[in-house]
Amino acid sequence: MTAIAAAEVIVTSPGRNFVTLKVTTADGVVGLGDATLNGRELAVAVYLADHVIPLLIGRDAMNTEDTWQYLYRGAYWRRGPVTMAAIAAVDMALWDIKARYAELPLYQLLGGQSRKGALAYGHASGADTEQLFDSIREHLDLGYKAIRVQTGIPGLDSVYGVAASKAGDGERYDYEPARRSASGRALPVEEAWDTRAYLRHVPTVFEAVRNEFGAELPLLHDGHHRMTPREAAHLGKSLEPYDLFWLEDCTPGEDQDALRYVRSQTTTPLAIGEVFNTVYDFQTLITERLIDYVRAAVTHAGGITHLKKIADFASIYGIKTGFHGPTDVSPVGQAAHLHLDLALHNFGIQEYMRHSDETLEVFRTSLTFEDGLLHPGEQIGLGVTIDADEARKHSYEPAYLPVNRLLDGTAHDW
Ligand code: EZ4
Ligand code: CO
Description:
Layout: E1 4-12, E2 18-25, E3 30-34, H1 41-56, H2 64-74, H3 81-102, E4 118-126, H4 129-141, E5 147-151, E6 165-166, E7 173-174, E8 190-193, H5 195-213, E9 219-222, H6 229-239, E10 246-248, H7 258-265, E11 270-272, H8 283-287, E12 293-294, H9 303-316, E13 320-321, H10 331-343, E14 350-351, H11 357-362, E15 363-365, E16 368-370, E17 373-375, E18 384-386, H12 388-392, E19 403-406, E20 411-412
Helix pairs in contact: 1-3, 2-3, 3-9, 5-6, 6-7
(2S,3R,4R)-2,3,4,5-tetrahydroxy-N-oxo-pentanamide (EZ4) is lined by residues 38, 177, 222, 224, 274, 324, 326, 328, 351, 401.
């Protein structure tokens, strides 16, 4: 038996907030798990510290499946992003430990290497076409072979996915949706939204991008859960001439049935799931083949054990993966994605936003990005360590994701 001797929650904010679980065995082997829930971080930190860590001490660190079931079924109150992020962090840490005992990079325990590396897509954006083209060129220069395109909308001041400023550190455009208030009292930023303006403008932008960059480049777009099924169907149809890799999150995440109408109306590939927590959120979507890509994140969908089940279930229906990889997934969570990406047969694509240099000083990762492909590296375990001294330098600062309102003030999906 490889007993868990200690577990600790580390909250750190190197440019943005991260919650990490550090589990240590009686032999002193350490595993890390990402528990970051953007904008609601401390709820998971307390859930772990008060309700989960006491259950871990003395358990066999090797029993990833039983520990997952114990925490999921044992809570009685199932699912939800807080619970599932906490379970995810434990699960990642235990897989990290298992691979460290085996002295293997984790992907070797998940099926080995099925491809050279994971095709990554980056986030290009611009308030107008000129800025967008610059951003696409910068991503091509960085080696990206697939690009998400988000654009400003005439008449709207600030739009989801459009970077506000240039950061000048690798990614060039700084994009972090959760914001902090200068006054110290963090309240969510309120954005204004107009779906009709969006639906009119987006196809013109894709036409311009195709004219400038050609037919070959894989292009993606994120609708961020803002459309009704009819609106989403309309957008999917109007984007068909531009041959998207996928249209993401076109309708609200709770409503699996909504995708049935969208699917019946358009051949634009559909992806959804970054806000999903379990395989049950995908059940209808997968069995009725209403989507092409599952977008869950290892951090919010119960860790490696559960994300692999989602991917395997999807594979039976010919559906591929496209795991959620914004900067609010820490280098620990992103490493977990990459080990799965390398091993899973039905891997599709991996979202990748480079973390800031500040973040990468706290989290030392063996991840590499070369020629458009991500690789988790050959270090044992997840391949990530946390520098506790660096982490302590960056104390938690509250930040919220924005809220969205229609032009008349009605609250809308952000
Ligand atoms: O808005 O991770 O596809 N990526 C996304 C992200 C999410 C953020 C929320 O924390 O939709 O940018
Ligand atoms: Co998204």
